[in-house]
Amino acid sequence: MKEPGTESGMGSGSGRWLANPANRVEAELREALDSAAARQADEVALRRVWARLAELPNPVLETDEGREQRQAARARRILWPWILAASLAGATATLAFMLVAAKTESRTGHGEQALASSTPIGASSPGEADGGGKSTLEAPGTVRTGFGETLHLSLRGGAEVIVKSESTLVLDENHGLAVSAGEVEFHVPHQASGQTFAVAAREYRVVVVGTRFRVRVSQTGAAVGVDEGVVEIWTDRRIARIPAGESWISTAPLGSDVASQIRAGSTEVGAVGGSRTGRATGSARAARGAAQLGSAGVVGNPASNPARKNARRMLALSTPVASSSSSTGSSAFGADNGWVDPAYLPTDPIPAGLLGEPPSGLVGATSGATIASTLHRAGTSSSDRERAPQIAPTPAVPADTTPIALQARGARAAGDARRALGLYRTLALRGGAAGEHAEYEIGGILRDSLHQPREAVSAWRSYREQHPRGLLRIEADISVIETLVSMGDTSAAISEASEFIRRYPDSERSAEIARLAGDLLRERGEYVEAIHAYDIALGSAHSRRDIADSASFHRSLCVHRGDEARGLESLRAYIATFPGGRFHGEAVRIVDRASSVVSPH
Amino acid sequence: MKTPGLSRISSTARPSDAELVSRCCAGDRLGWRLLYERHASLVYRFLAALGIRDPEREDACQDVFMAVYRSLPSFRGESQLSTWIYRITARTTGKLIQKRRLRSALAAMMLSEPAPPPPDASEETARNLILDRMLDRLNPKKRLVLVLFELEGVPVEEIARIAECPINTVWSRLHHARLDLTKMAEREAVQRRRSLGDFASQPVSRATTTSSDSSPQSPDPGALQ
Would you say residue A140 has pLDDT above 60? Predict the structure, then answer.
């Protein structure tokens, strides 16, 4: 064997090792090294990594202080026997400090954090925020409540607001209100003639005259329960009018858990997904639907007020009712209510639109309407098509997504697909890179873990609509194609594949998709189109050897179907090009058979 | 790396590494994204060559870039940015491998002995798998030098900076790594020839998404195929 390194000179760095191999082993070793050197990074994986990096809140650059700390840490590692005792003492002190800090924090609750990032709301203090005092929300900004916390606020005009646990209320510069996340209860005094009170909830606007109602926003939609008075739901047109005792829930866009709209009251309209079954009244089913949508139980003491019975039917029927204290807020989500795992419920804020001026002249436009919640789906009358004011965009509420993302990944890795799905849906609400990534992952969970390929395709298509230029757009496209193929929906798969090739001719996956399209077309007997697809696969700069092998052989088969002579010629070319190819034997057989038929002697 | 979402940005401007570093240090997220786009492929491939397999590799890649981002202010520009990133990647890999060794013997065994190539693996895939297996058996220091020199094409002077050792040591490690690799390749070839009979006598199944017309093939009885 030749001495390794001699070609490279061992000191000069010039030349190539094994450039002139002495035997086959060396030649193949050189070939393997060249092949490894040409290996491309997995584009999909890189985008996944980027999505994860981008979802980290703010990767902090190392400051001088941080560097000094790191250097100090290195020094400590070197001198660890000497400083071990000091470290133990320090750890004890730190532990004691943490215990004290934890106690202090538990006393102040989350109110401090929420208020710190919020609008100045009068003289509110953390203690008051937790269900006690009442502050006035005047300046534009965002109010967020922590877990188990309830915040009572007054608004200009006399309206009173109860921001429930883990909810977000936004007041814009035009005094427009929006519920971004969670549940908020409104007590609105009767408005003067021509005046309305409006609240945005996702893409909907809730317009009232004078009433008491609650708005709940989740990752899949919005829900409104009316205690007193009349409420109207608007998008660009009026879609529902809800009298007292009725409730309304928006259509779930992802379509997996909530198949349709649900109407509270005695009639059941929509169907609710999920494995649990059983007899339930319309209200109970509505409550279940609300729970699936992420609605929380009513915080407070509803039993003390009979007027809230109807509202409770939507959100809290069969759900244990908790008091407004921070310690019991979680039980309102009731893991033991038999309907929904609290882990699936979204609790984080989402970006939402804000209202401009509330529409005037809408009150009573369709007085007497009763079953309003079905209008969204069933269409509306001409009088309902009045134009409402546009929603002005509002910036996303910044939030740390890392813990949820980690939890979601952990849940998925642990096989708890439903929990992972819930967490990803929560993340999806937040928008940004984390939300985008979560929207993509939802499709994966639906297909791979929950075996709902159709819903998975819907989820990925929804992702594409939301993020037409998203980082994971290519993955979504490919996932849709693969899923459609596995579902046997060849036509849709071919259509998607064609669109993919048209859209991403330079993608490293285009060759693979073109080959796939060729295979699908060939199976359908569309040989001309298949040849075209194989040509694209073969012509792609990213065509790997295995793809070229397969595409070349199957292209030859397609040619053979149309013109036997040309097909044989093409097969011979394949045999010559891919002597060790996967279809070499079959190609040889076809050629031999044809030769024997032509010249039996 | 062709990442549509990212390449759109890069097509408009092509800042230098120094420019990117200063932008990142100023907290520019776009600069950070461009830096990732420029070097992610390199890191990912290098991690693979150093023996970090999926799905661990994605996490490792993320760790590397977090370390890069945190330490960017300490980058003085004395070497190329890629050299500096190589060094961080090598350190991250070293830590990962150390952690790996502390795990159970079974896990260590599985990692050091990757599964043989599947019967339907392409020629190229099979060759890569065998090379990976041989690289796994190399001493980590030798492997680092060999990978940088042979696969990444990094000059010896830069390798010395990355490996934090003198240039002569790099040459020495490279020499021994090549010797070891050649010996392993010869052993691999002998084993392959011995098992050829069993291999050839079994039909090779092929799983494709759509094609039903397969043609069982015997693998090339070559040393690395």
Answer: yes
